[in-house]
Design a protein that fits this description.
It is built from two helices and 17 strands. It is mainly beta. The chain starts with a strand and ends with a strand.
């Protein structure tokens, strides 16, 4: 469930690990990809593969000591507890789940966590989190095989026929 506040902040059940946010002031979801570039004799460069890179998310959020919020009952010290929980989560070096207003991401880790303080923050914390998906290598589960298959659009194979080597594309 999401509730927009004056069109510039969204209250959600957003969550980073076990830390539930009162409000996500902004979310940015990035889905980078690497395109291969292969030059040929005449100088033309062609692309024959697309490799998806790990997903990145940037969240600016706020958690307060308000006694009642959309995420449930809170009380004095809730913001300080959330601060400690975010730092502990980052220092644990373990992956966690992130729930945003639009998607859920597994296997995430902090790339950066900042908690600026100002005179208007009062008994709340405002934070910026840059999160990155961790791709597990060598895991032979069906989910990982599907992810790898989705990342590779096609592969060229060498085929020997009558002593000549030719390439065939597999789509």
């Amino acid at each position: 469930m999401a509730l927009s506040i004056l069109g510039f902040a969204t209250i959600t059940n957003a969550q980073i690990g076990t830390v539930v946010l009162d409000v996500a002031l902004s979310e940015e979801h990035k889905f980078p990809a690497q395109l291969t570039e292969n030059p040929v004799e005449d100088g033309t460069v062609f692309t024959d593969h697309v490799v998806l890179q790990p997903t990145r998310i940037q969240i600016e959020g706020r958690i307060s000591d308000a006694t009642q919020s959309l995420s449930g009952f809170r009380g004095p010290g809730a913001a300080a507890d959330a601060f400690k929980a975010l730092v502990t989560l980052q220092r644990s070096r373990e992956t966690f789940r992130v729930i945003t207003g639009t998607a859920t991401y597994d296997n995430m880790m902090f790339e950066e966590l900042s908690v600026p303080r100002g005179p208007l923050d009062g008994r709340s914390i405002r934070f910026n989190a840059v999160l990155k998906e961790i791709l597990v290598v060598g895991d032979n589960t069906q989910t990982n095989r599907d992810r790898i298959a989705d990342n590779v659009k096609h592969t060229a194979l060498a085929v020997r026929s009558n002593g000549l080597v030719t390439k065939q594309a597999i789509v």
